[in-house]
Amino acid sequence: MMPDFEDDFEPFGIMKIPMALTWGGPREGSGVQTQLLYGEPLFLLRRDDSGDYYLVMGIDGYVGWVRRDAVGYLNRDAFTELLNGDSARVVRNTMKDDFRIPPGSRVLVDQVNGDTTTVRLADGSEWEMPTENLLLSPATRHGEVAARTALDEFLYTPYVFGGRSNQGLDCSGLVGVAWAAAGVQLPRKPHPQAQS
Questions:
Q1: Is residue 119 a contact partner of residue 129, using CB atoms and an 8 Å limit?
Q2: Taking CA atoms, which of 41, 70, 96, 190 is between 20 and 30 Å from 58?
């Protein structure tokens, strides 16, 4: 039996590292479910007995276990802002010092300053990101943005079951992350993607 969260715990989180695989059980290597990308909102469902893993659900509805150190915690207000606030999708690999933010990641937008945009990162800090690396508002031609992102960022990326990044991706992962860069959130599995 897994321990429950404390009564005052708010079960909301955000992916705070560039990417992490989710697993079928609370340990690495227990069946890849999907990959989470930086800035993704997460519902924290359970934690394992050791407290090292959380069972999470992403906004695409996929459920899996992820390392606790990959998750930033949010209260209800911060989670609501993440879901409903002025956000942008990263469309190109972007480096901040030695930290990489991959395409498809979500960041909150504080201010557009022409060639740069002030964004708020998962840890709450602000950063001036090149505006050309962001999709600031829904594109009128979503398909073109998705195709450009797929070609520019993921061409020659190796196939990895459950992957959603340029380190490796599977078929529905490519479709999902390319369309996410265009501002369209699709389900994780291919059949529901085709119906969207």
A1: yes
A2: 96
Is the distance from CB of 40 to CB of 106 less than 8 angstroms? yes
Q: How far apart are CA 53 and CA 71, in angstroms?
A: 10
The helix (run of H) or strand (run of E) holding residue 146 is: helix 142-154
Q: Are 56 and 66 in contact (CB under 8 A)?
A: yes
Tell me, yes or no, if the pTM score tops 0.90.
Answer: no
- What does each C-alpha distance from 3 to 50, 94, 98, 187 come to in angstroms? 9, 38, 36, 30
**In whole angstroms, what is the distance from residue 27 CA to residue 46 CA?**
14
Question: Which two tokens mark 69?
Answer: 């150190």
Please write the tens of the pLDDT for every residue from 109-132. Answer: 999 999 999 999 999 999 999 999
* Of residues 116, 115, 184, the one with CA closest to residue 147: 184
pLDDT band at 64 (very low <50, low <70, confident <90, very high): very high
What's the Rg (C-alpha) of the chain?
16
> What letters, b where the CB count within 10 A reaches 16 and e where it falls short, cover 90-109?
bbebbeeeeebbbbbbbbbb
What is the token pair recorded at 132?
Answer: 């050309």
- For residues 46 and 190, what is the distance between their CA atoms, to the nearest angstrom? 27
Please compute the mean of the pLDDT values over residues 13-28 and round it to a whole number. 95
Neighbour-count burial of 191, counting CB atoms closer than 10 A to its CB (0-12 exposed, 13-18 middle, 19+ buried)? exposed
